[in-house]
Amino acid sequence: MLLPPAGVERLLPSDQIKPSDQLKIASWNVNSIKVRAEQVIAWLKSSETDILFMQETKSVDENFPAALFEAAGYHIHCHGQKTYNGVAVATRVELDDVRTGLPMLADSMDDEQARYIEVDCSGMTMAGLYMPNGNPVLDEAGEHHPKFTYKLDWMKRLNHHAIALQKGKKPVLFCGDFNIIPNAADCWDEDVWKGDALYHPETLAAFRTMCWSGYTDVFRAIHPGVIAYSFWDYQGGAWQKDNGIRIDHIMTNPEATDRVRAVGIDKTPRGQERASDHTPVWCVLAQS
Hints:
Elements: E1 22-29, H1 33-47, E2 51-55, H2 66-71, E3 75-79, E4 87-91, E5 97-100, E6 116-121, E7 124-130, H3 146-166, E8 172-177, H4 190-193, H5 201-212, E9 216-217, H6 218-222, E10 231-232, H7 238-241, E11 244-245, E12 248-252, H8 254-257, E13 260-265, E14 281-286
Parallel strand pairs: 1-2, 7-8
Antiparallel strand pairs: 1-14, 2-4, 3-4, 5-6, 6-7, 8-12, 9-12, 10-11, 13-14
Helix pairs in contact: 3-5
């Protein structure tokens, strides 16, 4: 059962108590791990996070600053590429298996981008993803731009895989930078985002397919009336004006949803010097 924490308007990790039989899972688009490794490690320690899925690490595996994380008590598993994309997991608990790359479908385009990592832990499957942005939506001829086509294809593959994992009847969690604004309440000005790939009708239809297949946006489930964002652009004073959007999500199947004990967004890192334009989202899950 979903249990809302006391004082749902307060969303900082320090407001939560995590018993030893629970896991704290978080996701953070770090926007270059080389630039923000020390900031990420400091947050891991202060937030007492057990497993952190990172996106947009922008680093090949051999250059990931794993030694810094190891010194802090976290093991690193990477799936990176040079300059762009890249995902990773930092964990202080034992993982049973780690897999990289979203499974392909027969009619899918070739995909060499590092955007997906999946682990098994405590009888659960958890995945961290960095969904394509998808802009621009249209090309000069008014047809779908290849970048938007790639996003839709990626979402089709994700939905297919998410449905396949449901058949295992075990807890499944997807988290990461979805590059999707689910509803008008999840952006500072709906009119600004109309027609954008993050808020396009075809994007939202694909996202609803995931929801209808049994996955829950747990932040919105526990905090239905809270306005909270996970991304603020570097331009135009977006952070100072709170012109944000909620595009980083945690999606759980019914078995995982039953284990959710708390969920939130920690805005603190976004206000720090040389911050990522995203901030961490997190949830606490019972291990059984």
